[in-house]
Amino acid sequence: MEGDRIEIRPADERDRRPLAHLFAAVAEERDGIAAEPPIDVEKRAANWDLDRTLVALAAGEVVGLVFVIESGFGFGEIGMMVARDWRGRGVGSALVAAAIGWGRESGLHKLTLSVFPHNEAAIRLYRKFGFAEEGRREKQIRRANGELWDLIEMGLQL
Ligand SMILES: CC(C)(COP(=O)(O)OP(=O)(O)OC[C@H]1O[C@@H](n2cnc3c(N)ncnc32)[C@H](O)[C@@H]1OP(=O)(O)O)[C@@H](O)C(=O)NCCC(=O)NCCS
Fold first, then answer.
1. Residue 125 CB–ligand 1 contact under 6 Å
2. If you measure from the C-alpha of residue 123 to the centroid of ligand 1, how many angstroms do you get, rounded to a whole number?
3. Is the CB of 128 under 6 A from ligand 1?
4. Which of 54, 86, 124 to mutate to test the pocket of ligand 1 (most atoms within 8 A of CB)?
5. Order of strands, sheet of 75-82, starting from the edge strand that comes earlier in the sequence
6. Which letter does DSSP use for residue 107 in this model?
7. Would you say the CB of residue 80 lies under 6 angstroms from ligand 1?
8. What would the pLDDT profile of 125-144 be if each residue is shown by its tens digit?
9. Please, what is the angle between helix 91-105 and helix 120-128, to 10°?
10. What pLDDT does 22 receive?
11. Is 83 in the pocket of ligand 1 (CB under 6 A)?
């Protein structure tokens, strides 16, 4: 929706529970991310790696997150999600742009990510920012129902 004000900032202590709740809600969808229910929200909130996370806020509420895990070898791996009601309004784009900026400022030479082949919204989002498909891991992720899902690996040189 035009006019939605989205703020992106580094995560801090007050975000722990909202981050964990967002993660649990997206896991409940059993579609875009590898994690599936049950998610221990209290534990995830307590252990959330705030230093590697950026949050997207709308009217003060956490509506999206991206984390960048530095490898120690110059590349960082990203993961992200946007609250279902907020998708398609540019929140994901704002988060990817911020992650790319954060990666450059941190001296990383590359960002990588893994995405399920059926996740067209995510793949289009990443392509829009120049991420290229670098390979496919077959039957990589075992789902709770026993299905084995492929992963597409994508990367962006910074
Ligand atoms: C993938 C995800 C993060 C995208 O977030 P978003 O806020 O909807 O993204 P945006 O609104 O910024 O849209 C970004 C681009 O994605 C594409 N896109 C968004 N929604 C789409 C849809 N339903 N179908 C196809 N493409 C879509 C478009 O190319 C769009 O760019 P454009 O608006 O300039 O054309 C979000 O759908 C999500 O959280 N999904 C569940 C969790 C997940 O899959 N995380 C990624 C794991 S790899």
1. yes
2. 8
3. yes
4. 124
5. 6-10, 53-58, 61-70, 75-82, 110-115, 148-157, 132-142
6. T
7. yes
8. 999 999 999 999 999 999 99
9. 50
10. 98
11. no
